[in-house]
Amino acid sequence: MIEDLIRPNVRAMKPYSSARSEFQGEAQVMLDANENSLGSAGPAEFNRYPDPHQLSVKQALAPLKGVTPAQVFLSNGSDEVIDLLVRLVGVPGRDSLVITPPTFGMYEVAAALNDIAVERVELNADFQLTAEAVQQILASDAKIVFLCSPNNPTGNALLAADIEAVLRGFKGLVVVDEAYADFANQPSWTTRLGEFPHLVVLQTFSKAWGLAGIRLGMAFGSEELIAYLNRIKAPYNVSENTQRLALAALADTTRFEAMRQELLAGRAWLEAELAGLPIVEHIFPSDANFLLTRFRPDAGAVYQYLLSRGIVVRRPSQPACAGTLRLTVGTRAENAALVAALREFSA
Ligand SMILES: *Cc1c(COP(=O)(O)O)cnc(C)c1O
């Protein structure tokens, strides 16, 4: 039962009822929300509060994802929903969550901020869960496990059988963070929501959609769980500007698909070029829009050289990623500039 996972104070609380959730629609005279009826300072009109439930965006998004609008939660970037999920089930100072390092850093930040203990179950050298790791997760009484697949910063998707084993045996929320799902070869876990009421799938507009600047994250889950998220969010957590731009993007799936294909082709090109460089020791398999690459003898020197050429890449801080750089796939010209600089460094 999802209800048993929810913190008692959240179950008991009465959510804030905003003016816009009490009256929906448009009237001749709107004097209910202390807005400025005259208009807006600046070039664009944003004088009205946005739809607190972002229904238009959800209605456009749901069919694309094979879910109902009531199974969709939208947030101020995935960062917001990661924090809300931790707060929804984790009692500060008492509960714990599981992460599988090396992985995305925000889960640990949300845990620290909310005084939730972190249980670390390390991935193996191929950045997969071992049988023992799966058993360790199943044996935990943590309230959430975060599984990032495809994983950041490693790039690989976790094996479906392992995620399924966690879904079958773990009693807390299973959050599968699919920020990079659009670059992956396997089906999204949204296709399995009907089987697992404690599954939450996270996606984002920040990567394949090319909209990191508007801050829009998506969570998909059972209607019951999404309803709880709606109770605890800030009333107007997604701005009018963001909602409008997301709607426009969702109407432009041709551009989305063209960019997605170009980034996938760029990844293949970059991988082939990197493989031919003597300073490249290993390129980890990627289902994402980046390549985790191990350099020899000194990734730090490569990083500094690239910086001196005006090229910024990421140096993952996790111990298991020692000697690696995380290279985002860019435009054709950016990819070529990166390879040219690496070739110069090699010479
Ligand atoms: C980039 C990324 C996100 C997206 O975060 P936003 O707050 O939506 O920009 C989420 N999870 C992972 C693992 C990421 O790498």
From TrEMBL:
Its EC number is 2.6.1.9. Transmembrane segments: none annotated. GO terms for molecular function: histidinol-phosphate transaminase activity. It is an enzyme of class 2 (transferase). It holds the Pfam family Aminotran_1_2. Residues 44-342 form the Aminotransferase class I/classII large domain. The modification N6-(pyridoxal phosphate)lysine is found at residue 207. It catalyses: L-histidinol phosphate + 2-oxoglutarate = 3-(imidazol-4-yl)-2-oxopropyl phosphate + L-glutamate. Its cofactor is pyridoxal 5'-phosphate. Pathway: Lipid metabolism; Amino-acid biosynthesis; L-histidine biosynthesis; L-histidine from 5-phospho-alpha-D-ribose 1-diphosphate: step 7/9. Keywords: Amino-acid biosynthesis, Aminotransferase, Histidine biosynthesis, Pyridoxal phosphate, Transferase. It comes from the Bacteria. NCBIfam families: hisC. Homodimer. Belongs to the class-II pyridoxal-phosphate-dependent aminotransferase family. Histidinol-phosphate aminotransferase subfamily. This is Histidinol-phosphate aminotransferase. It comes from Hymenobacter bucti.
